[in-house]
Design a protein that fits this description.
about 130 residues; mainly alpha; Arc Repressor Mutant, subunit A; 2 domains; three-stranded antiparallel sheet; 5 helices
Length: about 130
């Protein structure tokens, strides 16, 4: 691992949150990759190891890793583990659009859940075009 503090450091999932545990982990990895605290080439802990450290089922970590891989955030290299990929410019612009949407939703008084519902509906419409 290339970062000074091993992932996940002090971060722990919030079991009381309405956001599923795998999604909390997925979002944390994305946020840290975007900030550079998980630089490209950083090897993430093995599924079972991270699950034990976080106190979650291995399936939870495996699902987060699978979705991160599908999104191009990480790549799994078999026995060499799961590694953070380099972020490209397209991802940065998507992140900026998400920040703009979040700010607009918050300004208009939408809760997090309402903003997610709006985004999910828009995403579904795009998928069926």
């Amino acid at each position: 691992m290339t970062s000074a503090t091993p992932f996940p450091g002090a971060w722990r999932p919030n079991p009381a949150s309405s956001v599923p545990l795998f999604e909390q982990l997925r979002l944390t990895v994305i946020e840290r990759a975007d900030r550079g605290t998980l630089p490209a080439g950083t090897r993430l802990p093995a599924v079972r190891s991270l699950a034990g450290e976080l106190g979650v089922a291995p399936h939870t970590v495996a699902r987060a890793y699978k979705e991160l891989e599908g999104a191009g955030v990480v790549i799994t290299r078999g026995r060499n583990g799961t590694v953070v990929c380099a972020r490209d410019e397209a991802w940065s612009s998507l992140s900026a659009a998400a920040a703009e949407f979040a700010a607009a939703a918050k300004t208009r008084g939408a809760s997090f859940a309402e903003a997610v519902q709006l985004l999910a509906a828009a995403y579904d419409r795009e998928q069926h075009r």
